[in-house]
Design a protein that fits this description.
The chain is α+β, with helices and mostly antiparallel strands and 192 residues long. The protein has 5 helices and 8 strands, in the order αβββααββαββαβ. The strands form 3 sheets. The chain has a 3-stranded mixed β-sheet with strand order 1-3-2.
């Protein structure tokens, strides 16, 4: 299926996962929207990165659960596992956290591992791979901050050529004009 957006792909996968939840005894899946978007924190951290988040329907003006899959993830199988994890939060309620009903349903649908960082087990991997085969790969390239060069500081060193008096200024103010040395009353020079 070409020309499918990430959100269409995620929504179609969620619809195809409904029978998996029904087989585990889930009678009602509450209304939710799913999107690719940054979680509220730690999306780019090196350790303990958050890759998905479910906001309770009480947070939404139209009382819809909001599920987000981090744009740092592009692997279809991993995205499927994240989506299932967040759907469970929508089903049992976000107030449940990662214990009790959440953990029981996670294990029943085939998620394994630490409750806060589940991954699909063997049978769920087969199920997800079959569904991904029907949908095609997740239409997304991962977002990374590794390519962004950090300036280190926004302030630029400016010094008087005569006495060496030094200050720091932003590029914005230096574009307007150089500061004047308070001692020598001459334009200071930026160290660019």
């Amino acid at each position: 299926m070409q020309h499918m957006t990430r959100e269409e792909w995620l929504t179609r996968l969620a619809l195809k996962l409904r029978p998996t939840f029904e087989q585990c005894g889930v009678q009602h899946i509450p209304r939710f929207r799913v999107s690719c978007g940054l979680p509220s924190g730690r999306a780019f951290s090196k350790g303990n990165r958050i890759v998905g988040e479910c906001f309770s329907s009480v947070c939404s003006a139209d009382h819809t659960n909001e599920i987000f899959v981090s744009p740092t993830v592009s692997d279809s199988l991993e995205v499927g596992g994240i989506l299932i994890h967040e759907m469970i939060h929508a089903i049992v309620g976000t107030q449940e956290g990662h214990k009790g009903r959440f953990l029981r349903l996670a294990r029943a649908v085939g998620l394994k591992g630490k409750p806060t960082a589940t991954i699909p087990g063997e049978s769920l991997v087969r199920r997800l791979n079959a569904l991904i085969g029907e949908l095609g790969s997740y239409p997304h390239a991962p977002l990374s901050l590794l390519q962004i060069k950090k300036d280190g500081t926004r302030l630029i060193k400016v010094a008087c050529p005569a006495c060496g008096y030094t200050v720091r200024a932003t590029r914005k103010w230096l574009e307007i004009g150089s500061p004047i040395c308070p001692t020598d009353k001459i334009d200071m020079e930026a160290d660019i």
